[in-house]
């Protein structure tokens, strides 16, 4: 199994969150709150019913389960053993048939090229040493014409203030040290990486948070969090 593009410190961060992954009021609360938006973004751009999907960096399976409930036969992959154990247990309790694998995107791509109708990779690219390798692997796993989705954080002062200072230190929405600003990715950089991987970028949409209403919404503001829809050429 290839592990060259795995940061053990990043895996450890999410192992530490494993026990509270499915607590909607716990440290994974932001993931629970944005998951309906992520799913809506995917649903509007890809056919999930009867599709074959892979969720790369699935963690505890929040998006993975949503994809299954939307009708997709879904595999979840991650390099965090503890989140995967939580994901497996939660799927069992929910009566959902989901295959979870402890593997890298690159290793999965070697074994399953041109296989999936839908590939998702959410909130992961900013946690790996080589995002381009992940993007290449996601493109390889997709069938020609398949839909590939990414989400990550923009790199600018506003993103630093809101995603790190605000979310981690002031509002304490996330544990301190969750994100490394140097690994944030500008939309133009991600679009270039996608093109280099043989993907056509169709849409880039922002996810913004209103601290007054404490609600997230999709809009054209990509200054902090954003989603990308691509299709394999």
Describe this structure in words.
The longest helix has 15 residues, at 29-43. This protein has eight helices and eight strands, in the order ααβαβαβαβαβααβββ. A hairpin with a 4-residue loop joins strand 6 (199-210) and strand 7. It has one domain: Vaccinia Virus protein VP39 (Rossmann fold, 3-Layer(aba) Sandwich). Strands 3-2-1-4-5-8-6-7 form an eight-stranded mixed beta sheet. It is globular. Helix content is 38%, strand content 25%. By secondary structure, it is α/β, with parallel strands linked by helices.
Number of helices: 8
Q: Describe the sheet with the most strands.
A: 8 strands, mixed
* Average pLDDT reading: 93
- Oligomeric category: single chain
Topology diagram in text:
Layout: H1 8-16, H2 29-43, E1 52-56, H3 62-69, E2 73-78, H4 81-94, E3 99-102, H5 105-111, E4 116-122, H6 131-141, E5 142-153, H7 157-170, H8 187-196, E6 199-210, E7 215-219, E8 225-232
Parallel strand pairs: 1-2, 1-4, 2-3, 4-5
Antiparallel strand pairs: 5-8, 6-7, 6-8
Helix pairs in contact: 2-3, 5-6
List keywords for this structure.
233 residues; alpha/beta; Rossmann fold; 8-stranded mixed sheet; 8 strands
Summary of the model, kept short:
The protein is α/β, with parallel strands linked by helices. Helices cover 38% and strands 25% of the residues.
């Amino acid at each position: 199994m290839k592990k060259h593009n795995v940061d053990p410190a990043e895996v450890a961060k999410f192992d530490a969150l494993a026990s509270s992954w499915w607590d909607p009021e716990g440290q994974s609360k932001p993931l629970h709150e944005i998951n309906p938006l992520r799913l809506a973004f995917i649903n509007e751009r890809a056919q999930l019913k009867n599709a074959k999907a892979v969720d790369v960096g699935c963690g505890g399976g929040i998006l993975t389960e949503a994809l299954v409930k939307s009708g997709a036969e879904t595999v979840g992959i991650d390099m965090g053993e503890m989140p995967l154990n939580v994901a497996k247990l939660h799927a069992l309790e929910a009566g959902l048939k989901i295959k979870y694998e402890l593997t890298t995107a690159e290793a999965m791509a070697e074994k399953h090229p041109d296989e999936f109708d839908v590939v998702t990779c959410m909130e992961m690219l900013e946690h790996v040493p080589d995002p381009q390798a992940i993007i290449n692997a996601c493109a390889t796993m997709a069938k020609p014409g398949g839909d590939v989705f990414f989400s990550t954080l923009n790199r600018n002062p506003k993103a630093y203030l809101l995603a790190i200072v605000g979310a981690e230190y002031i509002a304490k929405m996330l544990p301190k040290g969750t994100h490394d600003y140097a690994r944030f990715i500008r939309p133009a950089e991600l679009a270039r990486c996608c093109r280099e991987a043989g993907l056509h970028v169709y849409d880039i949409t922002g996810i913004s948070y209103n601290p007054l209403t404490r609600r997230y919404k999709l809009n054209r503001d990509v200054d902090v969090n954003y989603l990308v829809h691509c299709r394999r050429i």
